[in-house]
Amino acid sequence: MVSSVQFVHDRAFILSTGDEIMTGQLQDSNARWLSAALIDEGILVAEHGAVGDVEKDLCDAILRAAAKAPLVIMSGGLGPTDGDLTREAICRAADDQLVLDPKLRSELAAMLARRGRELTPRQERQAFRPSRATAIPNAFGTAPGVHARIQTQAPWGLTDVFCLPGPPGELRPMFAAAVRPLLRPPQDRVVLTRLLHVVGMPEAECVQKLGELTKRDRVPLVGITASGGILTLRIRYEAREPNSPQGRAAAAARVDAVESEIRDRLGDHVMFTGAAGAIGGMDHLARQVIEMLRSGSAGPRTLAVVESCTGGMLGEMLTSISGSSSVFVGGFITYANALKERVGVLPETLACFGAVSAQTAREMALAGLGRSGADCCLAITGIAGPDGGSDAKPVGTVHIGLAWGSSLRGADIGSVPEVHSRHFLFTGDRADVRCRACVTALAMLRFLVLRGEASTPKLLWEV
Amino acid sequence: MVSSVQFVHDRAFILSTGDEIMTGQLQDSNARWLSAALIDEGILVAEHGAVGDVEKDLCDAILRAAAKAPLVIMSGGLGPTDGDLTREAICRAADDQLVLDPKLRSELAAMLARRGRELTPRQERQAFRPSRATAIPNAFGTAPGVHARIQTQAPWGLTDVFCLPGPPGELRPMFAAAVRPLLRPPQDRVVLTRLLHVVGMPEAECVQKLGELTKRDRVPLVGITASGGILTLRIRYEAREPNSPQGRAAAAARVDAVESEIRDRLGDHVMFTGAAGAIGGMDHLARQVIEMLRSGSAGPRTLAVVESCTGGMLGEMLTSISGSSSVFVGGFITYANALKERVGVLPETLACFGAVSAQTAREMALAGLGRSGADCCLAITGIAGPDGGSDAKPVGTVHIGLAWGSSLRGADIGSVPEVHSRHFLFTGDRADVRCRACVTALAMLRFLVLRGEASTPKLLWEV
């Protein structure tokens, strides 16, 4: 008789497969996404693993994962090529064999027919599944998933193994539609995670202000991560108590209390908060800036950008957010000096001060404001490297301009646009410098709107 | 007596640590980067693992990794907070204890002093190291690395464990400066990996054309991965033979032969090739387009962009490449219709056909060409979703315009700019649609330059 304990997924193991991951050719983004999705369901992730496309290695990894956690989520290895071995490895681990699933085969043939293609013998491989496993439908690709149960020596007996295809555009909807409904988070434990993104404060100062809140033996536990100029605080509450509405409410109250304490200590450096699976700090900052402009007390305000060294990255960040069109109008990529002049930077300014200067940043911002008709405009010009640096202007030198019309802040009077620029020396490689410049530009705008020009804080890397 | 076998790093285990990784808050990019760097040194990566900030779990993971491979590279857990436990876990795994390293302490104090800060007791933790381990200097941050050797039951006895800090801007230069010189790739084995990126061909067609080349028992082995509309073929040669100049030359000849066979079968769908650690297919495509325009037989040609639904992403991709300024001049982010009109799209066009239409894409491209003075201009307008779709124009509908002057291709005559547009229906979420649109735009330009307008192939997702 099977004990009911087997049905509790108290922790998970995430296993990725693919030679392209082991050789560093492909960034595995599924482990991160699945971790956040599981945490939001109250299931802790014990371990991540990744192995190459070798059937025995994959089988060993599946058996080890199944013995470590009652829930294993795998990604990759379900394609049509000879290097796709997840189906075979599951059979080997579960002592099962592959069978042709007629329903899968006809669905596959129909999907290919809609694309004007025929089912090749190679693609027919994808219509096979382990005989005792269930197929997971894939509406976005040709690789169905597999749900198998594997016998282990662990106390819970059977482990649920869900195999999903590697492409995130297929894995994510399949997880939501077919895996999530079958998850069984423990009912004797309450887990609650909340993230707070903090901007414009060095990590050491933040740690000092938080003091005893970051001690490892505290419940809830507070962790800190720094990335690209944004600090992320992670409040995690975990306790053995009934996962009842009352239990969850009590946990939320504890987390609320810590969040409130953190907000008291860090003030408006704290941006909005989210659940564990929330988007990263950079997306969050862009989202918050859009939200602040959209819902300002004096009505919606619009934003434009003029980008030189970031070449469109700030616009890309803003427009990665669905609904950004209510605030973001667009702008200009003035990578070459000729385009800076065409937009409105004076040739004399470029000649006297150079393209990377406070003067150029200010003129870019003012020109973008005028030409776009937006209420405010961010401009970025700098030296992202690795070439182009000098003693006077080393790699990482960036000037950020911010221009705004009287329309931006209700309190302002007069109709002449205002503009200021700030000077930064970012560390890191080309990608770091560009990314930090965009984040810092958004932080400048955020503090301008929140506090007014006079009292915006000194930002990280500001010279 | 220690056998010399201990000094051969024939394979590696990459271990990441951090609660922020296990909760899905942070994307671990170090495992990918380190894998590519090791493969390029001739060291295969056997496994990736990641565990949270729990000293015992970390210690167990270190011991398991050390028993699996004679080389372990760790990232994370070296910061100043109580959640940074790599130093402690190494001590536990190696039966060692932490000691204050006076040299580390004075370097740390000096680094902080240069930033106008004092060494706090918390930060002093970073000046401790396991007594028998060596510190690895960190020029870009406050966390020194650790090089320990851990006794195992495995045949090779001692395993080299290198612990590096999590931020990539610190990990990468530390790996290059301090870890790489200590690597000892096996001398009795030759490993050679080469990547080929393939554009404008469905995976099934590519697999069919490659035929027997992709069989799993072939040497060299050919693997295929699809990502964002680009296929990446991975040729891997691995054989037990002396890693001598002759052995390496023979391996290169074998790989050359396979590459040549692939190029014969796939023609100009193959883009340039690179070593295992080469950049991804999307960067590669942008790089190749820049290189084609820079080194054209009729002299360098310039490129501009006009972006609506991608909001700057195409410019970002192009400018992520150092040296792109020789070709890319910039462009316009015409997210709002008002900016499309300001750039030069006729109000009547927007009214009659809509912002997402072939007509608008063509006018955007022509306007961008004229206003930027570039030799060619790519324009993207579409519905990235999740909102904004309709039956007539579902989410994923994208029109890409390409305009070029007579200056672009030596063979063209006449001075009137030419323009065409193509219609796509991309699958996936908002991020997928945007990314695929940018990749496809670059592929359109690539085939136009290579083949001329009349014979560019049908691209993936083209309607």
Topology summary:
2 copies of one chain form a homodimer.
Chain A: E1 11-17, H1 19-22, H2 30-40, E2 44-51, H3 55-68, E3 71-75, H4 86-94, E4 98-100, H5 102-114, H6 121-124, E5 128-130, E6 134-136, E7 145-151, E8 158-164, H7 168-179, E9 190-199, H8 203-210, E10 221-227, E11 230-239, H9 245-266, E12 270-275, H10 281-294, E13 303-307, H11 313-319, E14 328-334, H12 337-343, H13 347-353, H14 358-372, E15 376-382, E16 397-404, E17 418-425, H15 430-451
Parallel strand pairs in A: 1-2, 1-3, 3-8, 13-14, 13-15
Antiparallel strand pairs in A: 4-5, 6-7, 7-8, 9-11, 9-12, 10-11, 15-16, 16-17
Helix pairs in contact in A: 3-4, 10-15
User: Beta-strand level of the residues of chain A, as a percent range?
Assistant: 15-25%
Order of strands, main sheet of chain A, comes to 2-1-3-8-7-6
Distance between the termini of chain A: 70 Å
Q: Can you tell me the overall shape of chain A?
A: globular
Secondary structure: helix percent of chain A: 25-40%
The major β-sheet of chain A equals: 6 strands, mixed
Q: Ranges of chain A with pLDDT <50 over ≥5 residues?
A: 1-6
Radius of gyration of chain A: 26 Å
Structural class of chain A: alpha/beta
Biggest contact: A-B, 111 and 112 residues
Number of helices of chain A: 15
Round the mean pLDDT of chain A to the nearest integer and report it.
Answer: 90
Number of beta-strand segments of chain A: 17
Oligomer state equals homodimer
